Amino acid sequence: MAHALGTTRDQLLLTLLDARETPEIFPPLLARRLRGEPIAYITGTRGFWSIDLAVAPGVLIPRPDSETLIEAALDHFGPQGPRNILDLGTGSGALLFAALTEWPHATGTGIDASPVALAQAQANAVRLGLAPRARIVAGGWHGTGEAYDLILCNPPYIGTAEPLARDVIDHEPHTALFAGPDGLNDYRAIAPLLARQIAPGGMAAIEIGATQAAAVMALFAAQGLVGAVRRDLAGRDRCIVVAPDRADPPRCP
Q1: Residue 7: which residues within 8 A CB-CB, separation 6 or more?
Q2: Where are the domains of the chain?
Q3: Fewer beta carbons under 10 A from the terminal one: N or C of the chain?
């Protein structure tokens, strides 16, 4: 209803709930939601960290759980921040743009294999005024060959047989969700890249499923990476912070 009225949810609840007739566009929007379409696709926007992103079908909807990666980076770098950032599988650009907003002197690269995601990320870069500092390029888990102070990644990590809510399975891109029978296929590809592309003193924050910490940590350890698990606000394992073994082991609360 707030979207249909062209206002914020807070403003709607405070002042407009009974002040106007139902807009004509509201019933069709409601019908879409009743058919299971995610609200973010219906309204075309999703808040993440301190930014509002444009989102559309074909691109994964950012989740609040992924903000755990930004929190981990803040703990590591503090206000000084990283000089350069790599966002692997950037999707809408949520992680990259949240980090660039947090550190105005940083530059970043977002990589994705999906043309739809690349177009969405580029549009968000322009929308947020970050295009001069953000490079959006096509690619996969091979990275760029450059070293980065901060690497962010929210890869697919759901096993192919795991159940999902209807609005997720019916509407969000399966290539951004599923990663083989055990949900670990993409971590197997990412682990070798991290060892090559984390700059000295840098770190990577990689999102994981709540039961995957031990398995993913083992994959990273096999590549000479040391890591620590960080939990989200619900107390679930959500992020692995990794660094080359030449650096001090990362510490996570």
Answers
A1: 16
A2: 2-34, 48-244
A3: C
